[in-house]
Backbone:
């Protein structure tokens, strides 16, 4: 509906190096909306980001969101630190 606020609370997820958003909850004009509704899924489907290649043999393992923004987590295997 035009002019009515749609508020979505979403969780970032990582899949094959791409960060996507998945709705946890949603409201339209203050009324609860099924977060799996096509309007919600459609709004979030446009929001994705490819992670850039990571240095030093690091591989992305996940993402989290917090008050300071989104953090990408990574780990390295078989890397020798000198």
Residues:
């Amino acid at each position: 509906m035009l002019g009515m606020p749609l508020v979505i609370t979403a969780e970032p997820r990582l899949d094959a190096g791409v960060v996507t958003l998945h709705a946890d909850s949603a409201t339209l004009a203050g009324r609860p909306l099924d977060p799996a509704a096509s309007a919600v899924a459609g709004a979030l489907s446009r929001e994705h980001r490819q992670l850039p290649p990571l240095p030093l043999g690091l591989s992305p393992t996940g993402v989290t969101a917090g008050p300071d923004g989104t953090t990408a987590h990574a780990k390295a295997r078989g890397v020798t630190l000198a």
User: Anything to note?
Assistant: Strands lie at 6-15, 18-28, 31-33, 48-50, 58-66, 69-76.
